[in-house]
Specification:
The complex is a heterodimer.
Chain A (H helix, E strand, L loop, with lengths): L10 E3 L2 E14 L36 E2 H13 L7 E2 L2 E4 L9 E4 L9 E8 L2 E14 L3 E3 L6 E5 L6 E7 L6 H18 L11 E10 L9 E6 L2 H20 L8 E5 L4 E4 L12 E2 L6 E2 L2 H9 L5 H12 L3 H8 L2 H11 L4 H18 L11 H12 L5 H14 L3 H7 L8 H14 L1 H9 L4 H11 L6 H12 L3
Parallel strand pairs in A: 13-14
Antiparallel strand pairs in A: 1-2, 2-11, 2-12, 4-17, 5-6, 5-16, 7-8, 8-11, 9-10, 12-13, 14-15
Helix pairs in contact in A: 2-3, 5-6, 7-8, 7-9, 9-10, 12-14, 12-15, 14-15
Chain B lengths: L4 H10 L8 H20 L19 E2 L9 H5 L5 E2 L2 E5 L4
Antiparallel strand pairs in B: 2-3
Classes of the chains: A alpha+beta, B alpha+beta.
Amino acid sequence: MNAPVNSKKLIKGATGDWEIVLGLEIHAQVNSQAKLFSGASTEFGGDPNSHVSLVDAAMPGMLPVINEECVRQAIRTGLGLNAQVNLRSTFDRKNYFYPDLPQGYQISQFKSPIVGEGEVIVDVSDNETITVRIERLHLEQDAGKSIHDLHPTLSFVDLNRSGVALMEIVSKPDMRSSEEAKAFVTKLRTILRYLGTCDGDMEKGNLRADVNVSVRRPGEELGTRCEIKNVNSIRFIGQAIEYEARRQIGILEDGGSIDQETRLFDPGKGETRSMRSKEEAHDYRYFPDPDLLPLEFDQAYVDDLAQHLPELPDAKKTRFIADYALTAYDAGVLVAERSSADFFEDVAKGRDGKTAANWVINELFGRLNKKGEDIAASPMSAAQLGEIVDLIGEGVISGKIAKDLFEIVYNEGGDPRQIVETRGMKQVTDTGAIEAAIDAIIASNPEKVEQAKAKPTLLGWFVGQVMKSTGGKANPQAVNELLKAKLGIE
Amino acid sequence: MSVDEKTVRRIAHLARIAVTDEEVPHLQGELNAILSFVEQLNEVDVDGIEPMTSVTPMTMRKRQDGVTDGYCVDKILLNAPAAEDNFFLVPKVVE
């Protein structure tokens, strides 16, 4: 717990340095057709109360029956988090009253969760990696949705989400800055998406975080924490932490003390505010759910799921570095999304990995990012981009022409090799043609030729002129060599 | 273990049960009677015995993942005191 204090992470207060301590609870909606304990659909955006069974509406006498797919997905997620999977777990009732919770309790796993301790390796920056320990993962029901702005005195309740399976993933308080917390959520989201156990769509609320924030003097005991509920974007997680940490430091430096409480982040104002005044609201009176037997499965089932897990981001990154000679940074960018990694591999297969990575990251991602699009929206296939890389490798086109070719294929589509043929984009390696161009430029610029003898950097100007007169198609290396010889520059 | 009047009121409040002042002493007596019975049970030594979850040894039945239910909004809203556009309507609850 008392890991060495990283002085770079400390916040300067008026009376000295402070350390932020952060723990997260992530609620991730399980990818499944039907709900955790009923056969109603989990699909987003149905008509109000259409994806609701009598079980979800908590009608008297209705009994929950667990969805085996949700169990399977929770186990797979546990395996992906390098966590202990518990062959026996139990369900408890968490009691509280709210109109979007028709049962009056949430079925959750309090005492014995399905998944125990694990860990996630998080790259915070190019050269900083931290390990965030996972405390537990448990299955629980989501609540319905209340809408408060449709009527002056009434709230509207839609139970479509009520009973959808959630995985609550609880971290240990292992993060020390908003950057670390954001990197952790990003990494966790990537792992979930690789596993296909949660789509990670934060806009739809399918992944949301409760952030526990406290501050302390470096090396001292943990301070009192506040919990910021339901933050639904990675950027907001960062903003909420920054605001909350400074709020707490302000109070402590003025001689006050922190009240343990639940707070809400207001993205419009960029601040957190107190949500529940009475601590009594936290008295959930958990007890074992008498409607549900213990959840049990055998080790063979877990082993089988483990065997069929996809390659996860950490392993893929290591492999990319080893097999394609990529930098850790490039490999990290490529594995952040499974679809990006797959696209890259299709381009890189049988080609130079570094060149492929450059074109995928700098050109293709660069173009897509400008429009806020991801790889799925790419108008260019991996085969097309691969062919461009081939044409460069074969010396058919120069790197500069390749960029023009990329533009054409990106905007108009078509077979790159054919485009090079029909539009005459082939690189001129024929020294005769290049020499002719050079001679013409030398003949019409005698004064520059004189200057270049004293000032060799002028070579660049000549190279530019030759490239211009050949429409960029001259092989730059050949131009350089021929020019040096003709101008007498070493 | 026994409960005082304050605890009785608190439990009632958590359960959203309206309790009048006259009812409190009576409920306190009932709750304490239950608790003293539980205390009797506590005298039994159950060290090392797994809590029993079912009278017959059985494992929990699991359901296959598939949409087999829902799309019955009329039934869902049948008993709702107030509804509009297929939503339940409740007194405004905003924290």
